[in-house]
């Protein structure tokens, strides 16, 4: 009796359509290699994003906050200022996760003509975190998308 293989054979992926998961799993060009049990184990042991813990009631987003979790611990509400694109020039795709660990909620505030599409406030005590992504820049004006949070 033959021993079953732990490899999963797949069909070729669509040409030039590589997702992050495909890259992690070892896609080369437009074909997917064998996915092993070790690939799946490796995916479950990825390192969480770095954190930036803030204790005040006002914080202005920095370029160094890209791909980080911003954790706010104040008992009062906190204003997270998304600086005007013309001032900081963040790239499209800039993103971070916003969490309130204290009893104060975090409010997103834009400057200038920049806009936010979605909710602009987190829940409190680690409820309803908010993900924000800089999704578009048009003539120096940024559009932010937010996910989660509360109204």
Please provide a brief summary of the model.
The chain is 12% helix and 32% strand. By secondary structure, the chain is mainly beta. It starts with 19 loop residues before the first helix and ends with a strand.
Fold blueprint:
Layout: H1 20-25, H2 37-44, E1 51-54, E2 58-60, E3 68-72, E4 78-82, H3 85-88, E5 95-100, E6 106-110, E7 115-117, E8 130-138, E9 141-148
Parallel strand pairs: 1-3, 2-4, 3-5, 4-6, 7-9
Antiparallel strand pairs: 5-8, 8-9
Protein model, in words:
By secondary structure, the chain is mostly beta strands. It folds into two domains: 1-46, no CATH class; 51-148, Jelly Rolls. Helix content is 12%, strand content 32%. The chain has a six-stranded mixed β-sheet, with no helix packed on it.
The amount of beta strand, in percent, is: 25-35%
The fourth-level CATH homologous superfamily of the largest domain is gp9
Kindly state the number of beta strands.
9
The CATH architecture of the largest domain comes to Sandwich
The number of helical runs is 3
The main sheet comes to: 6 strands, mixed
Overall pLDDT metric = 76
Primary descriptors:
3 helices; mainly beta; 6-stranded mixed β-sheet; 151 residues; 2 domains; Jelly Rolls; 3-stranded parallel β-sheet
């Amino acid at each position: 009796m033959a021993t079953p293989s732990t490899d999963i054979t797949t069909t070729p992926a669509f040409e030039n359509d590589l997702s992050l998961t495909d890259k992690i799993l070892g896609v080369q060009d437009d074909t997917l290699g064998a996915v092993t049990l070790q690939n799946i184990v490796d995916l479950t042991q990825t390192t969480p994003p770095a954190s930036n813990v803030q204790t005040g009631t006002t914080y202005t987003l920095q370029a160094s906050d890209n791909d980080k979790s911003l954790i706010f611990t104040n008992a009062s509400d906190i204003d997270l200022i998304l600086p005007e694109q013309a001032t900081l020039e963040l790239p499209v795709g800039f993103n971070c996760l916003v969490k309130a660990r204290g009893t104060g909620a975090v409010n997103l505030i834009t400057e200038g003509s920049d806009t936010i599409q979605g909710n602009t406030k987190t829940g409190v005590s680690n409820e309803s975190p908010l993900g924000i992504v800089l999704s578009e820049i048009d003539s120096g004006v940024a559009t932010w998308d937010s996910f989660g949070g509360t109204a």
